Amino acid sequence: MVEPGTFLYELWVSRWAILDGFGTTVLVSMLAIVLGTILGTLVGLVLVYGGWVSRFLVRIYVDFVRGTPVFVLVLASFYLLSQIGIQLTAFQAGLFALVVFCSTHVGENLRGALQSLPRGQTEAAKAIGLTFPQIFVYVLAPQALRQALPAWINTATEMVKASTLLSVIGVAELLLVSRQIISRNFMSLEFYFFAGLIYFLIDYAIERAGKAVERRVALPS
């Protein structure tokens, strides 16, 4: 067992590398969540309100991505895209894979939330002259948000966990940085535990923030 003082010393020596890895993890996770949510919203809208051709194509996209491990998506984004002339950095390829994966989950969640709303609300909104964007923003979205939010929080925390897979293509996020530090000082238990604690705190912060939003938008009982 390593002495606490020794671990703290190694932690201090490695502080800038850990901070860089932490920053990369937060950045890629937040970008994946934000961009995946935007794309997922479009996916959900097409699945519910698109024509049959667009619904069919988007359904294939959703089912294929949701049935593919994130690890495979990350490797495919990094290695296969370059074979067809799309040159991405490791960070960009990893982010692309996470955004695609996130969008399918958000899209499915939104589809379920929208389809659970009474159809009469849409018809009533059309009857008073609202356009579809106005109907979605003022009538459908606020109600769908309340139903989709718990699943979205879960998806957001999963994106943080999935960001660890970017280490396999050389993105210097927190896990890869921790492995590099361990290769120098051989304190695997201590630094893996420390990295796990950081991931837990990030996910916990997302969860608490999401719960606060849930309470804010909840209907009064």
Account of the 3D structure:
The chain is mostly helical and 221 residues long. The protein has a single domain, classed as MetI-like fold (Orthogonal Bundle), CATH 1.10.3720.10. It is 82% helix and 0% strand. It contains nine helices and no strands. Helix 2 packs antiparallel against helix 3. It is elongated, with a radius of gyration of 21 Å. 31% of the residues are buried.
What's the alpha carbon Rg, rounded to whole Å?
Answer: 21 Å
Rounded to the nearest angstrom, the distance between the terminal CA atoms is 54 Å
Instruction: Count the DSSP helices.
Output: 9
Please give the domain count: 1
Average per-residue pLDDT, rounded, comes to 89
CATH top level is: Mainly Alpha
Helix content: over 70%
Q: Could you name the CATH homologous superfamily?
A: MetI-like
Give a brief description.
The protein is mainly α and 221 residues long. It has one domain (4-217): MetI-like fold (Orthogonal Bundle), CATH 1.10.3720.10. It has helices at 4-13, 15-49, 52-66, 70-83, 90-115, 119-127, 132-162, 174-185, 188-217.
